[in-house]
Amino acid sequence: MARTGRTPKGHWLWTKKEDDIVRALYPDYKALRRKLRRRTYPAVKNRARTLNVVKRRRMWLASEVSRLRRLYPRATQEELMQAFPGMTWRRIAYKARHVGIRRARRKLATTGHPLIDTIRDRAQNLNLSMVDIDEIAGTKRYFQKAAWCNGNFNRKAVLRAVEALGGEVSVHWDRDGHLLQAVG
Fold first, then answer.
1. What crossing angle do the helices spanning 114-125 and 155-164 adopt, rounded to 10°?
2. 50 FRET partner, CA 20 to 30 A, in 11, 62, 108, 152?
3. What b/e sequence results for 72-105 when a residue is b if at least 16 CB atoms lie within 10 Å of its CB, and e otherwise?
4. Which has the higher per-residue pLDDT, 132 or 8?
5. Is 60's pLDDT higher than 80?
6. 3-state DSSP call for residue 61?
7. How far, CA to CA in Å, does 101 sit from each of 68, 93, 184?
8. Which of 4-18, 49-63, 68-82, 157-171 has the lowest mean pLDDT?
9. Closest CA to 182 of 114, 116, 120, 131
10. Bridge-partner residues for 12, per DSSP?
11. Among 121, 126, 97, 107, residue whose Cα is nearest residue 183
12. Left, alpha or beta for 165 (phi > 0: left; psi -120 to 50: alpha)?
């Protein structure tokens, strides 16, 4: 092999100059392939691994996974980054997805319509989506599309949703006949 410069299978032996190129250009495989014309992509990857140039994957410990299960649903991104030093947010989020952990649902933003807000809060408490509300109330896509934002406040759809969620609408007037509150 030393005399011919090739392995028994006919592959070229790696030279010190090629090894230095791999060390210098490592993460950029395109540049490595341009510099090392007679080397294939898998050969370059393998050589980088052999030279210990690549970053090794860090294995998650069982204690870290259990800590992730405990913290991930409610902790902020900054708290998670502090709990797992040396890991990127992407690695933490990927591991959580991999083991089936989901973030807790955030409270829906208020719309300015008390009845709509009440319906949305009730739906969230029952773990229902706006798609589910539309299906239960038979309102096509009124709640999915937030049609009330365009000035299309459909009283019939709102009343159907209130009834579907087991509620009733009541109106409170003051002594002068002005509407105080309409609550679902």
1. 30
2. 62
3. beebeeeebeebbeeeeeeebeebbeeeebeeee
4. 132
5. yes
6. coil
7. 8, 9, 34
8. 4-18
9. 114
10. 6
11. 121
12. alpha
Residues 184 and 179: their CA atoms lie apart, in Å, by 14
Question: Which residue type occupies 41?
Answer: Y
- Taking a C-beta distance cutoff of 8 angstroms, is the pair 21, 39 a contact? no
- Return the ∠ at Cα 66 (arms to 65 and 72), rounded to 5°: 80
| Residue 43 pLDDT | 81
Q: Which long-range contacts (CB under 8 A, 24 or more apart) does 163-166 make?
A: 163/137, 164/133, 164/136, 164/137, 165/119, 165/122, 165/123, 165/126, 165/133, 165/136
Token pair listed for 155 = 């009283």
Residue bearing tokens 């100059």: 17
CA–CA separation, 101 and 122 (whole Å): 24
